Amino acid sequence: MSTESTPVPKGSPSRPEILTGSGAILRSLELLGITDVFGLPGGAIMPFYDELMSSKGIRHILVRHEQGAGHAAEGYASSSNRVGVAIATSGPGATNLVTAIADAHMDSVPLIAITGQVFSTSMGTDAFQEVDIVGITMPITKHSFLVTRPEDIPATIAAAYHIATTGRPGPVLVDVTKDCQQNSAPFVWPPKVDLPGYRPVTKAHGKQIQAAAQLLAEAKRPVFYVGGGVIRAQASPELLELAELVGAPVVTTLMARGAFPDSNRLNLGMPGMHGTVPAVLAIQESDLLISLGARFDDRVTGKPSEFAPHAKVIHVDIDPAEISKIRLADVPIVGDAKDVIADLTVAFRDALTSTTPDLTEWWVRLDSLRAQFPLGYDEPDDGLLSPQYVIERIGQITGPEAVYAAGVGQHQMWAAQFIKYERPNAWLNSGGAGTMGYGLPAAMGAKVAEPDRTVWAIDGDGCFQMTNQELATCTINRIPIKVAIINNSSLGMVRQWQTLFYDGRHSFTDLNTGHDTVMIPDFVKMADAYGALGIRVTKKEDVDAAIRLANETNDRPVVIDFIVSRDSMVWPMVPQGVGNSSVQYAREHAPEWEEE
């Protein structure tokens, strides 16, 4: 991602306009092309909110909780390749943003968080709602700024935007004292942005590209291991060209679903703990891993010492800290995935002697795995809905042009498995942090960014209750998202692990939201109270009609309470701490496992 040139405001270098710090924040955001922000006012940020009220170019979405603002900004950014902006006051307002900031940091989401701070003269005195949010967020941001002088605002906001959107994208915090917001200074734009030491490398070294191309030309069992960095780099067209040229299989991580079309014959699906068997075993049996924008996360590798034991590794990443962090790279390449893949395509063509390497034998093995281990599920024997069926039908009826945002847990994995993704930015989820409550506000942000797309939040009954207050935000602001609650009346993923690894002792995972006649809360009544359309589905024959009604309803949000079996599990599965070769496809294998 890169910054764009911005117009110069009224005034001149010799006689610049005098603005308050608050006015400078607003003007800077406008000049950077920001059109939508999410936030909640409070005492320390009140001067800026007073200024924001007069803006004709920026739409402010008033959330009901600051965490919702942060996740909405994430969804906005992740669905549109633009920067998301979240605003909060000092103290608890700022700390309520921390979860979303950490989430954006883990998943490389370009986010600017603007927080109010107490008067600079009161800092360090434990003043009312004083919190050192710069110190708190330092480990989970690309950078955290504290601004105490209004003349520093333009350069700081411009720097925040530049840092958030270049190199490896991520969150940047700008904490502004109240007196800085109130005081005035000349507004100078464009400002001089001086960032010593911040020089992201985007163009890879030519010799490394040549070495990678040579390995690729010689490989007999290559696999493209594609991570979310390909989506952030907007490199999907380049990836498609390279993969088709090589003819090698592609696996897309949880964060990379949609980076490569699911319908493409080369796509083996998702690797990792709940990946497809062909994807998992292809990596295990490969002789060359071409890792593109992936960070060898533990949910993908399983036991690192047993991950892809026979493979050489080409590791491409914009962040040099990720190279060889988990797995030693035979060919390390630091650079922007879009540029690197394009260069690698050219170099691979040059490395070919006469014909493309013959991968026929490799594909015979992979196709046999596809035939032997198709992705599927069993119908529940308790008479309740199959969650996999519900999610599969949402994807089939709504189609690939929609945006699907998920919470975290079983429903997240089923949404990654059973919805077919044909384009980048169609799948939004909390991958690294695993944040329950992400789904609904992220969907809200995505709908603001992409108003012409249908946007679904696929949520669990546990996740939904963490941020469902943002339904009010959606109703009032006419943001007609669709919410599918996959209601198994429990914390499903924790319950699955308790079943498999704790002898079925389901300790404090029952939520009483939809089974045994107990519905606390009643989600349909809750939807009605929030001004949304509430629907409950308990029979398979009613699933399609409910989904179609939701897709046709665009004057308000829709909430569908799907009552599903609590005994449904996510398969395949590689337990935590074991090698990926131990992947099992069905529940009957579970007793063989011992969690480490």
What would your notes on this structure say?
- With 596 residues, the protein is of the alpha/beta class.
- It folds into 3 domains: 11-187, 3-Layer(aba) Sandwich (Rossmann fold); 206-372, 3-Layer(aba) Sandwich (Rossmann fold), CATH 3.40.50.1220; 387-570, Rossmann fold (3-Layer(aba) Sandwich), CATH 3.40.50.970.
- Helices cover 35% and strands 17% of the residues.
- The protein has 23 helices and 21 strands.
- The strands form 4 sheets. It has a 6-stranded parallel sheet with strand order 4-3-5-6-8-7, sandwiched between helices. A 6-stranded parallel sheet has the order 12-11-10-13-14-15, with helices on both faces.
- β20, α23 and β21 form a beta-alpha-beta unit.
- α1 (21-31) packs parallel to α7 (153-165).
- It is globular and about 70 Å long.
- The protein starts with 10 loop residues before the first strand and ends in a 33-residue tail after the last strand.
- Mean pLDDT is 94; it is low at 1-12 and 587-591.
CATH class of the largest domain: Alpha Beta
Largest sheet: 6 strands, parallel
Going by CATH, the architecture of the largest domain would be 3-Layer(aba) Sandwich
Oligomer classification: single chain
Number of helical regions: 23
Structural class: alpha/beta
Count of spatially separate domains: 3
* Share in β-strands: 15-25%
C-alpha end-to-end distance = 40 Å
CATH topology-level fold name of the largest domain: Rossmann fold
Number of strands: 21
CATH homologous superfamily (4th level) name of the largest domain: Thiamin diphosphate (ThDP)-binding fold, Pyr/PP domains
Report the average pLDDT across residues: 94
